[in-house]
Amino acid sequence: NAGVTQTPKFRILKIGQSMTLQCTQDMNHNYMYWYRQDPGMGLKLIYYSVGAGITDKGEVPNGYNVSRSTTEDFPLRLELAAPSQTSVYFCASSPDRSNQPQHFGDGTRLSIL
Amino acid sequence: EDKVVQSPLSLVVHEGDTVTLNCSYEVTNFRSLLWYKQEKKAPTFLFMLTSSGIEKKSGRLSSILDKKELSSILNITATQTGDSAIYLCAVGYYGGSQGNLIFGKGTKLSVKP
C-alpha cells in the first residue's frame, strides 16, 4: 500500500520557469491537500479539494494552481516561479469522514534560483 | 485570527529524560487536536484528541487535551535518540472543508546519547 506519493523529490527551478508537482494517493480518499513548509514554520495550506472536480483556496494560494480530475491525483502547478516559493511541499489526503487524520507524502523540496 | 502555538520551539535532552511538549490554540469551531511526528520526510500521525481529560497513550508517548485551558500536552518518557524529530500540533475545525487543519510551528526535539 503506497499511500500518498509525490514526485519529484527534489527540483531546482530558475526564476520565471513553471512546473507541476505531482501527487497521487491509492487510499480512495476524497479529501486532498497541498501544504508548504518553510524552515522554522508550520505547514501552510495552499489549496485543498473535497472531491474530483472540486478545489478551493487555502491560506497561501497566490502563485499556485491546482486541478482534480480524478480521485487519485491532485497536481500543484507553479506558474512564473519566484524565490519566495522556495520551500518543501507536502501533499496529504484524508477520508470523507470528519475526525480522521491526514496522511502525508514524503514531500518535494523545491529551490528557485 | 485562528492560531496554534507550540512551546518550546526547540528542546535538547539526554536519553532517558522525560519531556513535555505544549500546544495551545485559539481556533473558532474547534473540532479536534492532532499530534504528528516529523523526522526527515513526511509528518506521521501520532494522536487525535477530541474529548477533554481523556489520555491517549502509545508506548512511551501520551497526550491529553484540556478544552477549558485550550491546550494539549504531549509527554515522552524514557526518551531515546530515535525520538529526535519535529513534533507538530494541528487543530481541526468545523466549517469549510472538514479536513482542514491549522498547524503550529512545531517543537524540535533533540535527544542526545
Structure characteristics:
heterodimer, A: 113 residues, mainly beta, seven-stranded mixed beta sheet, four-stranded antiparallel beta sheet, B: 113 residues, six-stranded mixed beta sheet, five-stranded antiparallel beta sheet, 0% helix
What does this entry look like structurally?
The complex is a heterodimer of chains A (113) and B (113). By secondary structure, chain A is mainly β. Chain A is 0% helix and 50% strand. Chain A contains no helices and eleven strands. In chain A, strands 2, 4, 5, 6, 9, 10 and 11 form a seven-stranded mixed beta sheet that branches. Chain A is globular and about 40 Å long. Chain A starts with a strand and ends with a strand. By secondary structure, chain B is mainly beta. Helices cover 0% and strands 59% of the residues of chain B. Chain B has strands spanning 3-7, 10-14, 19-26, 30-38, 43-49, 56-58, 61-66, 71-76, 85-93, 101-103, 107-112. In chain B, the strands form two sheets. In chain B, strands 2, 4, 5, 9, 10 and 11 form a six-stranded mixed beta sheet that branches. A five-stranded antiparallel beta sheet of chain B has the order 1-3-8-7-6, with no helix packed on it. In chain B, a hairpin with a 2-residue loop joins strand 6 and strand 7. The model of chain B has no long low-confidence stretch (mean pLDDT 93). Chain A binds chain B through residues 4, 31, 33, 35, 40-45, 48, 50, 56, 58, 90, 94, 98-107, and chain B through 4, 9, 31-32, 34, 36, 41-45, 48, 50, 88, 90, 92, 94, 96-101, 103-106.
Mean pLDDT of chain A: 92
Count of runs of 4 or more consecutive helical residues of chain A: 0
Low-confidence stretches of chain A: none
> How do the SSEs of chain B run, as a string of H and E?
EEEEEEEEEEE
Radius of gyration of chain A: 13 Å
Could you tell me the number of beta strands of chain B? 11
Largest sheet of chain B: 6 strands, mixed
Q: Which structural class do you get from the secondary structure elements of chain B?
A: mainly beta
- Which structural class do you get from the secondary structure elements of chain A? mainly beta
Oligomer: heterodimer
The main sheet of chain A comes to: 7 strands, mixed
Could you give the distance between the termini of chain B?
Answer: 41 Å
Helix segment tally of chain B: 0
Instruction: Estimate the strand proportion of chain A.
Output: over 45%
Estimate the helix proportion of chain B, in percent.
under 10%
- From the N-terminal CA to the C-terminal CA of chain A, the straight-line distance is 36 Å
Rounded mean pLDDT score of chain B: 93
Shape of chain A: globular
Compute the CA-based radius of gyration of chain B.
14 Å
Got a strand count of chain A? 11
